[in-house]
Amino acid sequence: YMATCIDHYRTLWSKGVPVNVIDSEQPFDGYKLLVAPMLYMLRPGVASRIAEFVQRGGTFVATYLTGIADESDLCFLGGWPGPLREVLGIWAEEIDVLYDDESNTMVLQPGNPLGLTGEFAGRTFCDQIHAETAQVLATYGQSFYAGSPCLTVKEVGSGKAYYLATRAERSFLSSFYDALLQQAGVSKALDTELPEGVTAQVRTDGDKEFLFLLNFLATPAEVCLGDASYVDVLSGDTVKGKAQLAAHGSMVLRKE
Fold first, then answer.
1. 149-156 and 159-164: which strand pairing?
2. Of 58, 163, 186, 238, which residue has the fewest beta carbons closer than 10 angstroms?
3. Would the pLDDT of 255 be above 90?
4. How high is the mean pLDDT of the chain?
5. β-pair partners for 4
């Protein structure tokens, strides 16, 4: 569970997307993208609140092992993902658990609405799902369930609900979230590709925005700042074009 959460969080973190970690009983208002990796246990009312979130225009991402049991760890009857079956538009019949050295293949469907192409590895868990009212975006390429869905989407109201049925490799998650961020209108701290190991986050005092750049690498890094002009809060220098970060260095920039 923790590894799956980190996979999704790290993908967004590496893109400079601010992420709040909340529990399922906190309000979803104000969010554009809601990611719930392995939401195995569903408390009362959570599924209906997720459905309302999507209906209002939100983007929801669920994964394998979602909607299995209630708050007492009693399995839902009538098919998984339990109360989320309708909003996700899928039925999870069974799950295949792979050995550490095994993998399956995710094959993207031509012309899928996310514009994703190619094949990617799926490991550890491979949910065997049926698309009931959802659109199939990718299918498995191997084993006895080859050709069955492994990535789906259902449009609900003005929003979308995605189901990712396998633990996808990081390169897929990167492309997947790039498409979702653009589609959902989620802003990054910087509209640029960040070097591996560098993060960008935005804070505000209610008036001005401050850009925090942190380099977790043991080597210097260069960050493209686009056309905007900043002031280095610590030195007072104007910074344009590119920011130079020392090894394990950081900068706090105020947008002019």
1. antiparallel
2. 238
3. no
4. 95
5. none
Q: CA 103 → CA 64, 82, 96, 100, distances in Å?
A: 15, 27, 11, 8
Long-range contacts at 186-191 (CB < 8 A, ≥ 24 apart): 186/17, 186/32, 186/33, 188/15, 188/16, 188/17, 189/16, 189/17, 189/18, 190/16, 190/223, 190/224, 190/225, 190/226, 191/226
- What one-character DSSP code corresponds to residue 249? -
Please confirm whether the linkage preceding 110 is cis (ω < 30° from 0): no
Q: In degrees to the nearest 10, what's the CA dihedral of 43, 129, 131, 32?
A: 40
CA-CA distance, 99 to 105, in Å (whole number)? Answer: 15
How confident is the model at residue 205, as a pLDDT? Answer: 87
* Averaged pLDDT, 148-157: 98
Q: Which carries the bigger pLDDT value, residue 11 or residue 256? A: 11
H or E stretch at 209: strand 209-215
Residue closest to 119 by CA, chosen among 177, 178, 175 = 175
Residue 256 confidence (pLDDT) above 90: no
192 has pLDDT over 90: no
